[in-house]
Amino acid sequence: MKKILKSAVLIALFSAFSPVIGGSSPQRGSPPPPGPPPILVKIGEDLHMIQNPQNVVSDIGAYGGNISVFLTPEGVILVDSKNERMHDDVVAKVKSLTDKPIKYLILTHNHADHSGGAAKLHDIGVTVLISANDRENMAAQSNQQALPEIGYSGQAVIVMGGKEARLREFRGHTRGDTVVYFPADRVIAMGDLLTTHEDIPPIVNYGDGGSWTDWKKSIDEILTMDFDTAIPGHGPAVNKQQVRDIRNKMVAIQERVRALNREKKPQEDITQILVKEFNWGAGPAAGNIAGMMQEFR
């Protein structure tokens, strides 16, 4: 059996999912939400996605974000974990695909809709990785109960059963977003650097070090990679041209905000213009307007 984990800078953290003082999880012990469960979507021969049933904002609190399930002869690699109360459903879905154990969980970033199920997976023997930057974001959360035992910086590679998952760190949604590239499948899992359903628009989290300027740089770099299919943090999988289309829309929004700032338009007017022209700026995106106005002054 051959397992390789390497990176430009790899930090093996002795805390091994150690408790964080003062943390508690509001979801601990909660039953799964009512309604239809998430669904399995086949992306490739050895790659599946666990996707929410409706891809709407209300699904995020109920279920969390998307999960990528990468199958190898020696075990399973998951990308993201949904929330804690979806643990049993996630494990059952993996068992419906393979009798091999889940060996690794890669977290694309620190937000609970992607990382909330990590502690329970660690409890059953799964090794959990996240970028060192977003591990620090997790540690700063007042209600954070546990931390991944491995943080990496820059790049890392997991090779298991002759199959490879390549991790690269970017800045955009947070200051340490992880993108996972599966070269044999020509698929990339992008976390919340990419969302694809109109009801859940792309946003950045300024409090966790996100930046629209760096989001653009990151997407431009990702688009140079050799992939056909992208798995987003929320919404259905898309092709490379669709990623480019989303990039172009968000860059146009950024430039529009810059122009409206020059005209000294108030936030309310800017919001109304963005919603009218781009169908972006309401719902979850509304909280990004003030930060975007500061960033693109």
Could you explain how this protein is built, in words?
By secondary structure, the chain is of the alpha/beta class. It has one domain (3-241): Ribonuclease Z/Hydroxyacylglutathione hydrolase-like (Metallo-beta-lactamase, Chain A), CATH 3.60.15. The protein contains nine helices and 13 strands. It has helices at 57-63, 87-95, 112-115, 118-123, 132-139, 212-222, 240-262, 267-278, 289-295; strands at 3-12, 39-44, 47-51, 67-72, 75-79, 102-106, 127-131, 150-160, 163-170, 177-182, 187-189, 229-231, 238-239. Strands 1, 2, 3, 4, 5, 6, 7, 8, 9, 10, 11, 12 and 13 form a 13-stranded mixed sheet that branches. α6 (212-222) links the parallel β11 and β12 (229-231). α6 packs antiparallel against α7. The radius of gyration is 19 Å and the shape is globular. Residues 6-29 have low confidence and may be disordered.
